[in-house]
Amino acid sequence: MSAPADKQAVTRYPVDPLIRERWSPRAFADRPVDRETLGSLLEAARWAASCNNEQPWIFIVARKEDGPAFERILRCLVPGNQAWAQSAPVLMVSLARTTFASNGQPNRHALHDVGAATAQLTLQATALGLAVHPMAGIDRDCIRAEFALPDDVEPVAGIAVGWPGDPETLPERLREREKAPRERKSLDAMVLGGW
Ligand SMILES: Cc1cc2nc3c(=O)[nH]c(=O)nc-3n(C[C@H](O)[C@H](O)[C@H](O)COP(=O)(O)O)c2cc1C
User: Fold this and answer.
1) Cα dist. 170→12, 44, 84, 91, 179 in Å?
2) pTM attached to this predicted model
């Protein structure tokens, strides 16, 4: 774990250091992520809870040094995300299978469960000193066409993974965002009923 002090979550109640240190940077170091390490991230995702143990998540994974798959994901990101995500050594896209395998009925919880698996992947990455940045800014039609997705498989999010980098390497506008304070609504704003 290695979040800069001014990026760590400021909490009213104690939380595990993993939670405190996770954040979504845009600057990545020019350093690859080996397969063994990526395996740990994917294993963490694999063991997420899911509705009916359906495990509706699928991850397209591409390391920069492994050739064209990385470029295929990169060109399906919106330009604003391409600008910084191109420097990440690993790009992923999370997918959701939106129907239950057993009966073909819609799985209303598929997106929830892909998010849960991604959260586990992210915390495992944080534990290993890696940074993860999720991206809604993807061209879903591009992903669907590029990877020939069946109708019941939905692109959910892009995910940039890498070792934390130097914010000074970012273009000015992004550098400012990289250094901006992290903010959250209050606990009171998200809890009904008290505890
Ligand atoms: C589902 C999802 C989609 C996101 N999409 C983008 C995106 O397209 N581009 C981007 O720069 N950040 C994106 N983010 C990052 C959020 O802006 C970030 O998580 C939020 O501002 C809180 O900051 P933190 O992750 O550092 O705590 C996304 C995050 C999530 C969870």
Assistant:
1) 32, 30, 7, 18, 11
2) 0.97
